[in-house]
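To the wet lab folks,

You asked to see what we're planning to order before we commit. Fair enough. Below is the target structure as tokens, and below that is the sequence we designed to fit it. If anything looks off to you, flag it before the synthesis order goes out.
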């Protein structure tokens, strides 16, 4: 066998394995909400359990934490930020007060 073919195959195998072993999701993000309980956003839940693709939110709705713009409840009720999915059609409606504690619950990552 040619050394180039072996080397190329080894590189391809390493790249494929590193992709398979990569951690999916961005961990938990805590959003503080003045006057109410903080919000814990779980990437793991949304990617693993809700089976969303990263591209469903990134980069149309959210860019990254450093570029994130604060959107209040009024904005979410107009379909911005979390409200793009949480409108009652794809996921529970942020406008429905019975769901407030689903997000605003002061849970901290790892608890």
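Sequence we intend to order:
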């Amino acid at each position: 066998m040619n050394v180039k073919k072996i080397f190329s195959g080894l590189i391809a195998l390493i790249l494929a394995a590193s992709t398979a072993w990569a951690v999916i999701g961005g961990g938990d993000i805590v959003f503080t909400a003045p006057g109410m309980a903080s919000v814990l956003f779980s990437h793991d839940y949304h990617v693993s359990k809700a089976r969303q693709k990263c591209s469903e939110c990134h980069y149309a709705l959210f860019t990254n934490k450093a570029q994130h713009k604060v959107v209040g409840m009024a904005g979410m009720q107009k379909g911005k930020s979390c409200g793009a999915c949480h409108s009652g059609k794809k996921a529970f409606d942020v406008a429905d007060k019975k769901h407030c504690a689903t997000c605003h619950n002061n849970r901290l990552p790892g608890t």
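Structural context that might help your review: Confidence is low (pLDDT under 50) at residues 17-22. The radius of gyration is 19 Å.

Thanks,
Computational group
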